[in-house]
Amino acid sequence: MGTILVIEDDARIQKAVQRLFASEGYEIKSSNDGRQGLEIFRGSTPDAVVLDLMLPSMSGRELCKSMKQSSPDTPVVVLSAISEVADKVLLLELGADDYVTKPFSPRELLARVQAAIRRSRRSRPGPAAHFGDVQVDFAKMEVTKGGKKIALTAHEFKLLRFFLENAERVISREELLNEVWGYNFYPSTRTVDNQMLKLRQKLEIDPANPVHFCTVHGVGYRFVQSPQA
């Protein structure tokens, strides 16, 4: 089935999560410390990570950011007591693929992790892509525009990749939330609009008049790889 890395400092919860995934045939690696968890992650290739936010030596937020920078395709599902919308949006910015709030349903956690793994496996792209004067290197997680590096957050990169994989197709905000964010519950479709604004500002020649990241009024967005002259 694959390998799940569990990074959780509560021994009782860690054991419960280990039993849950082991019963489904997954190999389990685990840590109760942030820095140790990062070392295990870098030394292995887990199919997904279940991550607590409150950890010794390194916070879960820092850990999530580091893991996504080194391996953007590996799903990270946060398991935490967070409930505030602001915290959930921050996790999106750091690249988390989903979250489950404590106390949690084992079946829900299993379903969300497995869904994140499926999304990751079916959306892995080729090594590179380009549009206009933008070059995208998926392996290095790097984007250049006119030969200059452009800094994208892990989640902006994930959104860009989804558009490149679905070029010319009209995509609703709800589909983007479900397929890119991976959340069944989300604060607002404005989340998508805000991320689109940032992508346009970074990657369009004229963000106020985009030719690649186009709005389809009343529906959502369409990515145009090669606009008509």
TrEMBL record:
Residues 3-117 form the Response regulatory domain. The keyword Transferase does not apply. Keywords: DNA-binding, Phosphoprotein, Two-component regulatory system. The modification 4-aspartylphosphate is found at D52. GO terms for molecular function: phosphorelay response regulator activity; transcription cis-regulatory region binding. SUPFAM superfamilies: CheY-like. Gene3D superfamilies: 3.40.50.2300, 6.10.250.690, Winged helix-like DNA-binding domain superfamily/Winged helix DNA-binding domain. GO terms for biological process: regulation of DNA-templated transcription. SMART domains: REC (SM00448), Trans_reg_C (SM00862). GO terms for cellular component: cytosol; protein-DNA complex. Residues 126-225 form the OmpR/PhoB-type domain. It comes from the Bacteria. Residues 126-225 bind DNA. This protein is a positive regulator for the phosphate regulon. Transcription of this operon is positively regulated by PhoB and PhoR when phosphate is limited. PANTHER family: PHOSPHATE REGULON TRANSCRIPTIONAL REGULATORY PROTEIN PHOB (PTHR48111:SF40), REGULATOR OF RPOS (PTHR48111). This is Phosphate regulon transcriptional regulatory protein PhoB. It comes from Alloacidobacterium dinghuense.
